[in-house]
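ENTRY TYPE: protein
WANTED: fold as tokens:
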Amino acid sequence: MSMSPAHRAFHQDLLAHLPAARIHTDPLSTLAYGTDASFYRLRPQIVAKVENEAEVGHILRLAREHRVAVTFRAAGTSLSGQAVSDSVLALLGDGFNRGQVLDGGARIRLSPGMIGAHANAMLAPYGRKIGPDPASINTAKIGGIAANNSSGMCCGTRDNSYHTMLAIRALLLDGAVLDTADAASVAAFRASHAGLLDGLAQLSRELADDEALAERVRRKYRLKNTTGYGINALLDFADPVEMLSHLLIGSEGTLGFISEITFRTIVEHPHKASALVLFDDLARCCRAVSALSAARQRCGVSAVELIDSRSIRAVQNNSGLPDFLYHTVGPGSSCLLIELRAGGAAELAGHRAAIDQLLADYAPQASSGFSGDARQCESYWALRKGLFPAVGAARPVGTTVVIEDVAFPIEHLADGVARLTGLFDKHGYDEALLFGHALDGNLHFVFAPGFDSPAEVARYEALMQDVSDLVAGEYDGSLKAEHGTGRNVAPFVRQEWGDAAWNIMRRIKALFDPEGLLNPGVIITDNARLHLENLKPMPAADPLVDRCTECGFCEPACPSHGLTLSPRQRIVAWRRIRQLQREGGAADELAALRADYRYRAIDTCAATGMCAARCPVGINAGALMKRLQGASSRPGAAMFAARRMGLMTAAARGGLRLAHWFGPERLHAVSQRLRSRRKIIPLIPASLPRAAAPLPQLTGGGEPVVLFVSCVNRVLAEGAGGRSVAGHAVSLLRRAGFHPVYPPGHNGLCCGQPFASANAAAAQGDAERALNRALLRASRDGLHPVYLDNGPCAARVKQAQADGLLDARLNLFDAASFLVERVLPRLRFHRRRDQLALHIPCSASSMGVAGALTQLAERCCERLTVPDIACCGFAGDKGFTVPELNAHSLRRLKPVLPEACRHGVSMSRTCQIGLTEHAGFEYQSIEALLDFCSAPPGGA
């Protein structure tokens, strides 16, 4: 991709301040990093990853010198086009992923690169959380949450970033740093930037003097409103420094860079209850919402989600809903999902009774009643969360998903729902669904336009104009309630606010950024068609991934995100490659994309499916990478190994003994040097496990249980003593009154996982058939349970059974499930670890047993730490062949572990190798930990 002369000069100067490895100009990087969750596509000329304030300062200085525009990006989950650029895109690196809890959880100081959910995890021990609660909180980062003034289902307007911010540290375009928590910084800024502060004070006086406009501003900000700049700051504060700091909230990177923010936190109530309430009349439903809003503080009403009749029909194929939602619903029907919160059980009971009485006055057609059961409540909220996939998963290939959000004055909510529905019908968006945060009059609507023809773009344009006329023109509502103005609504800011307010906003932009270098086009634009330009193409790529909306929710779970590509970026690049292959032309771009794609997309994909677990429409990008990897190049060797697994495991144990004779640390150093020359050389870890001892002999009585010892646990020992996982498993099972038995020919059995990873289908099938025969025989055709001792192997065997490849009569248990259900109730614990770190492997998450594994670990320690590392990246043998993947994924492990923690546990033997290597202490199996904690003093 060619750069302008100004960008070439910027790039050359930037190399003096940032390592070349963090500055990207190649076609794959600019395409991949240039994508966000919106339906706009701009391709940056330069992508730079910044790790600290000094580097941000260099970028801002060079932007001024070379007159090039800069856009800052946190997680890229914003929906309105505010995080894309065709100039310089600055990505936040790990250096901005910091947080500090203050005053016993009453405050929290955060850097912009921290994920919102991670901030809440820091606050959880104090019973607190941050105020903003966007639906993207598991992915969105603090910088974006603050820069967009994000809110969510529960926070309303009172607990958003604007109202909970206590202090901010920011860099302005001219290089100035303002830290409002530091009196010296504030004093210096007042002296150096008197002109800027005087300009804000003047705007404040002008706005206050226009009484009608001032009252309108106050009224509009009682609603959720992220359209334009937050000019309520000019009325809410007398000090221009406070005006400035609050204008930065919601400014979408157009006024400066937020490098740190301190929030006032809010209580996370421990007692909650939810209910689904159906109405057959929309107006009556919305009157109930007004009553619930009035009772919000008094009765602990934390969230009320309105779900329209179309949305109810869209999720009627889902299971787990109350029976009344499966009946035919008329066009006037609507449903409320209500959540109550309280500090205690008695208080919650009082709230439930009061709200039941309140709702009775509005004659609901049916109600589930309030439930405090966590699993039941989760099923209710699954209805709400299922609305986006209902459109996203069913849309035609080539269309995108648009989520608009508006706000009406709550007294006009019923009219707003009806009128918006009429606009969907008028413009032929039959798939559109409408739902929203009803307490705040905030409505979302989801639809699937195609932007592949002028007619489709014109249809979208007509809808947007009608929506603007309705929401802003007729009801004086908000065109963007919580998703930010971006490029999407920038052309409509003037229509919503009028000339006087619009001119105040323009002058604010001019005070901070007179040359328009910070995120140009966002919020303030003179281009009336900006929202129709640079619309993102969504070309067909592969049925496995064509439903991807590019939301980015997958990225925190991906071990290669930030190293090479994330699942979203893999799909974006593959879409472009397939488009170029079909259309021809751009031969140089296609060649460049394909040259880099193999390593950055395919080879560094862990292919564990964690992306599918986070994806709203369930896309597994790893499945596509496995397909692109191609079939095994050595199927004969794979079949040889599958049929001689006993010989292969014996040889592996022999190799380990030889390696320990030579010295693992020496081997690690040698393999590291060799690998620096040829990447094909695997890296031997310094903490290489020893060879496992022979499997213990099985004698005695008790309840029979078939113990399938995976090939990896037949090879690798636990700890320095050489004892196998099987030794600990047998000890535990016997202690609990079970009689373990091995399946016949156990030393030659394999679950098939190594061959599945290598795409050696024939060998995989052969291994699965042999295992099926052995397990049926040992279990007496499913009479006895089967214990699967390694997480990934258990997941593979269970999936094979679900796919019909293993006999359905087999009663299969992964280790965590069997130990919790059958063994734990029979154990007595004699010792506990003081500190313990738990890694939940991908396999445990995919099997839904993370809770069981956590329960086991909690019984064995005084304090448990569970780092949010969805996938460690060891991924079978990739920890040896692509060790940078494991290292990158576990780079955050040590920093989040307590200093006194010296013990770890998991349920995947290969994961434990990498965890031990990067934590600096041993991660053992859950069997070994339970065996240690439950062993009677002085004996087993």
Notes: The CA atoms of residues 869 and 892 lie 8 Å apart. The chain has a mean pLDDT of 95. The two ends are 67 Å apart (CA to CA).
